[in-house]
Automatic annotation (TrEMBL):
Higher taxonomy: Bacteria, Bacillati, Bacillota, Bacilli, Bacillales
Reactions catalysed according to its record: 5-amino-6-(5-phospho-D-ribosylamino)uracil + H2O = 5,6-diaminouracil + D-ribose 5-phosphate; 2,5-diamino-6-hydroxy-4-(5-phosphoribosylamino)-pyrimidine + H2O = 2,5,6-triamino-4-hydroxypyrimidine + D-ribose 5-phosphate
UniProt organism field: Paenibacillus baimaensis
Pfam families per UniProt: NADAR
Cited NCBIfam families: ribofla_fusion (TIGR02464)
The protein's name in its UniProt record: NADAR family protein
Residues of the NADAR domain: 6-155
Coiled-coil ranges from the UniProt annotation: none
Top-level taxon of the source organism: Bacteria
Length: 160
């Protein structure tokens, strides 16, 4: 039977909003959400918004700015977004040992974003919902959980 590690709130190290400093290509980030929104702005060549996202301190503000990116195309975004989230989380977990240890502790489970409101990156259900224990009854795709589970497995393979 499949085992799950559920997460949702900012306090969780698996949240895109969890505070974690890391650097990618000499650019510093304060959380994975900032990295994702910055990459989104770069993808659509909105340099002004990319700068604003880097200056924004809170993930809520970063997300808000990400929604204002000019020339956004959903199909194009969906072709790249999982890789951006993977890359940002790779940097986050490999540059923060205490977070890496938390990720590795989930070995043998599928990570699941128990967000009742997010049906793309999460499953559209709270952890307390009985439906969350069976992926067939999830209301969302769990892209974030999928990316993090794959990242964890890749990191474990690299350590061998």
């Amino acid at each position: 039977m499949e085992k799950f590690t559920f997460f949702y709130r900012t306090e969780s190290p698996f949240s895109q909003w969890h505070p974690a400093e890391f650097v990618v290509s000499r650019v510093p980030f304060n959380c994975s959400e900032q990295f994702m929104m910055y990459q989104k702005a770069k993808l659509f060549k909105d340099e002004e918004m990319a700068e604003k996202i880097l200056l924004a301190k809170s993930p809520a503000e970063q997300k808000q700015l990400g929604r204002m990116i000019r020339k956004f195309h959903k199909e194009e975004w969906e072709m790249h977004c999982k890789q951006f989230v993977y890359d940002g989380n790779y940097a986050k977990f490999t540059q923060n040992q205490h977070l890496l240890e938390r990720l590795l502790e989930t070995k043998g489970t599928t990570l699941v974003e128990a967000s009742p409101t997010d049906r793309i990156w999460g499953v559209g259900l709270l952890e307390s919902s009985s439906q969350i224990r069976n992926r067939k009854t999830w209301r969302g795709t769990n892209w974030l959980g999928e990316v993090l589970t794959n990242l964890r497995e890749d990191l474990i393979s690299q350590m061998k």
